[in-house]
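Allow me, if you will, to draw on your knowledge of protein folds for a short while. I am sending you one protein, given as its amino acid sequence and as whole-number tokens for its backbone shapes. Kindly check, if you would, that the fold set down in the tokens agrees with what the sequence suggests. The record follows directly beneath this note:
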Amino acid sequence: MIVIPSESKHFKYFTKFDAAGCYLIKEDWKDNGKIISCKMELNRVKKLWNGDVEEGGIDKINKRTKEIRIPFDVSHSLITQFKGRIKDCEKEIWNIRMVKSLNEMKMIRTAEKVCIELSENFEDIIKNKTEKEMGKYIKTQLIDMLDDISFEPIVAYDENSSQPHHTMTNKRCRRLALIDFGGKKNGYCSDVTVMIPLSSKYSTEIEKMSNAWKEIKKIIKPGKHTYDIVLKADEIIRSYYLGHKTMVHALGHSIGMDVHEFPVLKRNKKYNLKIKKGMVFALEPAVYFKTYGIRIEREVYV
């Protein structure tokens, strides 16, 4: 028996709603499943779930089976309440989630498109806003234009752009801005990083990374392995930035209902996986120097 507690982030993926004290029960992955719900959530879940709903809890589940497959992203204290043989099924879930349906892709594309359209006016706006003010502005706009933000925006001006995950300050922009942000559409995330040059000195550097991004995108195809893609991407980046070393972060990551999903485009054979049609990646090649950084990020739909 497969048991996905509402405490797990995977619960919402299968049910399309959040809940507390509930358990999605499946006999296999093709089974729509039923939900065992606590009394407090029972009426609400019955309205939301297009399937069987029963009142109950872990005791009811323990009486039905001696073997449980459960995602281990839940708390250890919850797992220990189940009796019998316990097996982690999170890898099985990611094998399902990593390939997106056309509708899932549509939601991600919509969220990405809104972010790109919003960024078209950034050059004028950053001249009058500090990093913190710009971050607040982006957050407000995305909540108004979409459903929510995917994550807290990162706004890094000038030398602060050399820090991949910079903490925003009251600094004002003089030369260059790196802005990493994303929004949600019907629960699906986008993740975009744009570069805004206020000095022509950086325009060429940004164009080089934009060209590198386009070249890397072309090698992300079904049948290719993630590890090989990362090695080739390193070569491409070095061809534009001579002497540059390996990136300090992953080349990219899968994206969906979570902004960071599996698989990851990383220089580590532990994460090596064959690319499949239907995968969606946030591709973010970057270079970082002492006084500035350049990162371009957009979604790639395989």
In short: The radius of gyration is 22 Å.
